[in-house]
Design a protein that fits this description.
The chain is an all-alpha fold and about 290 residues long. About 75% of the residues lie in helices and about 0% in strands. It is built from twelve helices and two strands. A two-stranded antiparallel ribbon has the order 1-2. The longest helix is centred in the middle third of the chain and has 33 residues, at about 110-140. It is globular. The N and C termini lie far apart (about 60 Å).
Length: about 290
């Protein structure tokens, strides 16, 4: 293992932060060239929600002269650059902690970077395509029965979009956090399983904070994937511990379980597509 003094650690941290910022800056410049198209993508959930609520015209509002410029040409490219540069940023994080690991553990750099960046981007996609859309339509339509016409400024809309998207993307990093803590011997799979009921309670509380709506449907939409990610992280930590001890996981059993889950998910997706089923935030939750 490498030996570094405290000042060398600080110098290494400074170097990695600067390199990560360079990558973020390059991604920001590239995103500027697609700012208009990116805004069409980001504003699409609002346009669709307003159309479903029969609001005419289905558009967001600009309330101040600088609002459109700051959101579309500054904040939006910055948000996009965070997702685009996430593999580079994660690599700099791994490069900083890798000197404190054993040689075999340092060889896990590529899987760590791909998995961490993939979960981060996947969490953003989950928020955009599913969670944010249902929550937004609920929020915009909740007052229409009381003669309230929704008029949403692009700043307020984008702030909510950033909070939900980044919040869910960071929550999707839960397996990586658990794996890292296990790798650094700060946690053990046995401890995590023993206290899983407290972890599930904490996950539900976090999901309630992140969820943009107060209904149980959207709460479970956030909480269930987070609980699954928690146990995926525990499984990854268990695989790491058993590898250290020279043992192997029962991969055949795990593969069968994974295939059953994929089969159930595939059948559910087929039924939804074939019978044109849709989810709704109230009983019976599924409708045609």
């Amino acid at each position: 293992m490498l030996r570094m003094s405290f000042m060398e650690h600080l110098e290494e941290l400074r170097s990695r932060i600067i390199k990560a910022l360079y990558g973020l800056g390059i991604a920001f410049v590239l995103a500027l060239g697609f700012a208009n198209k990116l805004w069409d993508v980001v504003s699409d959930p609002a346009v669709e929600a307003l159309k479903h609520l029969h609001v005419n015209p289905p558009r967001l509002a600009q309330l101040t002269p600088m609002e459109a410029f700051s959101v579309i040409w500054v904040e939006l490219p910055l948000l996009c650059s965070v997702f685009v540069a996430s593999p580079w940023i994660v690599y700099q994080l791994w490069a900083f902690i890798s000197p404190g690991l054993y040689k075999k553990e340092r060889n896990m750099a590529l899987p760590f970077v791909l998995l961490t960046a993939g979960l981060f981007i996947g969490g953003g996609c989950f928020a955009y395509f599913l969670a944010f859309r249902y929550g937004l339509e609920f929020l915009l339509g909740i007052g229409m029965s009381n003669n309230v016409q929704p008029v949403v400024s692009i700043t307020e809309y984008f702030d909510l979009f950033v909070n939900v998207t980044l919040g869910v993307a960071l929550v999707f990093e839960l397996p990586v956090v658990i794996f890292l803590l296990t790798l650094l011997r700060l946690l053990s799979p046995r401890f995590l399983l023993r206290h899983s009921r407290y972890a599930i309670l904490a996950i539900v509380i976090v999901a309630a904070i992140i969820t943009p709506t107060p209904d149980v449907f959207n709460l479970m939409l956030f909480a269930v994937p987070m609980c699954l990610l928690y146990f995926v992280g525990v499984l990854a930590g268990l695989a790491l511990v058993m590898r250290r001890e020279g043992r192997k996981l029962p991969w055949r059993t795990l593969l069968v379980i994974a295939l059953i889950i994929l089969l159930v998910s595939g059948v559910s997706a087929f039924l939804f597509i074939h019978y044109h089923l849709h989810l709704q935030p109230k009983w019976p939750y599924i409708t045609r």
